[in-house]
Design brief:
The chain is of the alpha+beta class and about 190 residues long. The protein has one domain: Nucleoside Triphosphate Pyrophosphohydrolase (Alpha-Beta Complex). It is built from four helices and twelve strands; from the N terminus they run βββββββααβββββαα. The strands form three sheets. Strands 1, 2, 3, 4, 7, 9 and 10 form a seven-stranded mixed sheet that branches. A hairpin with a 4-residue loop joins strand 1 and strand 2.
Amino acid sequence: MIKPDWQQTPIAGSQLFVFEYADVNGKQWERVRRPPGVRLLCLNRDSSKVILQSEYRREMKSTDWRLPGGKMFDFAKPWMEYLEAGKDLIDMAQKKSMQEAQEEAGIIVNDNPEFLEKVIMTATFERDLYYMTSHNWELTNQHAREEGEIIHEIKEFNWSEVAQLIKNGELKESQTIGVLARNFIL
């Protein structure tokens, strides 16, 4: 990741910012950067099943089976300040994955989620997704969803069922598909 200087950022919104940088040849480019997100894989004891939630996604105008997760920072500026302070994003990913799983799906995580993988979405739009795993959790009805967040169903799937969701286009988040395929399906 190219670390932008927050003070030199030409355009900054609440969740996004645009920054300029020069490549190795000195050519100027612009990039859009968004704070990182997190996803939690709630696995059964032998890692043969995972919890997914059926969630309506406004940007897709459809329902998608997804891992519980969300933003690690609600706004861009606190994220930059966190980085500049030298704090560890894995620690934040642990905390936020537990929080998001409880808020969205009512999953209470009873251990510290383990870091599995970071997927870096690059090109002109950058966003990192941190994938965490937990084997010690319980599903409750104690969720606190954000306003407008629509989750229809929470269900445990085995890996062949997850592969079928991917084939049918019912699990659409490409970064998650890659993580699941690399680590569990293939």
